[in-house]
């Protein structure tokens, strides 16, 4: 004789299609929120990279200026930075023949660093705020 067990109901067999769609939609919303937050972190990392590059360019500019290299193009920060990318050498003095040059950077990195550089009194300087 078989035991008299109740038949499982429809819900006991698994999840309904509606329940699965709701769970998938909620997962999608949470993934979008996480990706949106990481987008801000990436922007912050790029900003930090640009600041660091600008500080490095300003340091090379200060050293070249102190050594007597003529690399500044009055009123044109971009041309001044380009002169440092190519390299600047003093015409006389202790550092005559030595080249002051910015380490290799991609064009996008140089362009990003330009936001934090300015010409003041014939010197290329770093500005904390763009």
Question: Could you characterize the architecture of this molecule?
Answer:
The protein is 52% helix and 6% strand. The chain has a two-stranded antiparallel sheet with strand order 1-2. The chain contains three helices and two strands. By secondary structure, the chain is mainly alpha-helical. It has a domain at 56-130. It is rod-shaped, with a radius of gyration of 30 Å. The model has no long low-confidence stretch (mean pLDDT 85). β1 and β2 form a beta hairpin. It has helices at residues 17-67, 77-86, 107-113, and strands spanning 117-120, 123-126.
Task: Characterize this entry briefly.
The chain has three helices and two strands, in the order αααββ. It has 130 residues and is mainly alpha-helical.
Give the rounded overall mean pLDDT: 85
Task: Provide a count of the helices.
Answer: 3
Give the biggest beta sheet: 2 strands, antiparallel
Quaternary state of this entry equals single chain
Low-confidence stretches: none
Strand content: 5-15%
Order of adjacent strands in the largest pleated sheet = 1-2
The rounded Rg comes to 30 Å
Instruction: Give the ordered list of helices and strands.
Output: HHHEE
For the record, give the distance between the C-alpha atoms at the N and C termini, rounded to a whole number: 86 Å
Number of strands: 2
Which overall shape is indicated by the principal axes computed on the Cα atoms? rod-shaped
Structural class: mainly alpha
Helix content range? 40-55%
């Amino acid at each position: 004789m078989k035991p008299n067990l109740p038949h499982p109901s429809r819900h006991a067999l698994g999840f309904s299609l509606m329940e699965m769609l709701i769970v998938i939609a909620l997962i999608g919303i949470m993934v979008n929120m996480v990706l949106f937050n990481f987008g801000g972190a990436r922007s912050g990392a790029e900003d930090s990279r640009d600041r660091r590059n600008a500080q490095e360019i300003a340091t090379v500019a200060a050293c070249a200026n102190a050594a007597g290299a003529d690399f500044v193009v009055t009123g044109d920060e971009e041309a001044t930075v380009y002169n440092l990318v190519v390299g600047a050498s003093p015409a006389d003095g202790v550092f005559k023949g030595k080249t002051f040059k910015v380490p290799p950077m991609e064009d996008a990195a140089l362009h990003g660093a330009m936001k934090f550089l300015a010409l003041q009194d014939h010197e290329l300087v770093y500005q904390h705020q763009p």
